[in-house]
Amino acid sequence: MTPLRQRMTEDLILHNLSPKTSRLYINWVADFAWHFHTSPDRLGAEHVRSDLLHLIQERHVSGNVHKQARLALQFFDRVTLGRDGVVADLARPKALKKLPVVLSQEEMARFLDALHNPKHRALLMTAYAAGLRLSEVARLRVEDIDTARMVIHVRQGKGHKDRDVMLSPRLLTVLREYWATYRPRPYLFPGRQPDRPVSPRTVQMVCQRALEASGLSKHVHRHTLRHSFATHLLESGTDLRTIQVLLGHHSFSTTARYLHIATAALKSTRSPFDGLEPAPGGQTQP
Q1: pLDDT at 264 (0 to 100)
Q2: pTM of the entire structure?
Q3: Which of 41, 71, 180, 238 would give a disulfide with 233, using CB separation of 3.0 to 4.6 Å?
């Protein structure tokens, strides 16, 4: 490891960034250096601009991926090199805002029923029933299932924050049956090694198998269960502030996007077209 890479790694640790984010930032700076075949500390604003344009025009990366690269280079310049304004002054491409994929409750039941492995079923049911990120459900320990208070303790979620979410009585029955068969410890869903948690990638593979077995045509990815959890809560009348707390969102605007997905309010809202009086001589029946 070069001294420069070591310094950036230490800076990422000091700023308490997650291991996943740290790896992404290190990789993007390495990609930046490889693009110009030069040490990144010798590259300036024009190089950054050229690289970010290259990501859009040649590699056709998504808005989120482009944002990751930009933030990585900004951190490297501002924190590791102590230079300010090299990346911040560059124009930012407008990100496309797409509504997340959500399964209906009927589709969700079909999706979960498609799995016959008790461990995999319990894992995905936990993710949906509590609205957990895949990394959060993978790291659950047996003692995080608090049956006395009927909550699940989520430890060090995104942003290094702890939170409690509801423990569904129906899910508790599923987990008890699963535990009686597998007796996992310390992690509720261990990986190949009993003392290590299942990897988020494995959870994603389980999702893919469930999708294929269910025959659903929707594109189900790692956040679909979480999106569906939030949307179903909103459609059942749960207020947005409660949903924000359950999801562990820092920003209320992140939670508010589910207003654009929930269909219950849309179906119950009468279109003004329905109130129009028919024109003289017009037809009242279709």
Answers
A1: 54
A2: 0.71
A3: 238
